[in-house]
Design goal:
The chain has 2 helices and no strands.
Length: 71
């Protein structure tokens, strides 16, 4: 049988991990709902795709394949 402190520490670690997971899920939920609200408010999907997704992909690709400028 485990000592009480060990069980409490294990329970605390489990609750802490669950809270961290819940925080990540909440951030994702807010991002999805924010996007949904923008689309329902009439945001042009073409603008959204070009501004957010394509710009991010282009930036990542440039950072990956183009060397930084030498100072």
């Amino acid at each position: 049988m485990k000592p009480r402190k060990a069980v409490e520490a294990q329970d605390f670690a489990a609750r802490k991990h669950l809270l961290e997971y819940d925080d990540v899920m909440n951030k994702q939920r807010l991002a999805v709902y924010g996007l949904r609200d923008q689309l329902l408010d009439g945001l042009d999907q073409k603008d959204l795709i070009l501004e957010d997704y394509v710009a991010d992909m282009l930036s990542e690709t440039m950072n990956q394949y183009l060397p930084e400028r030498a100072s």
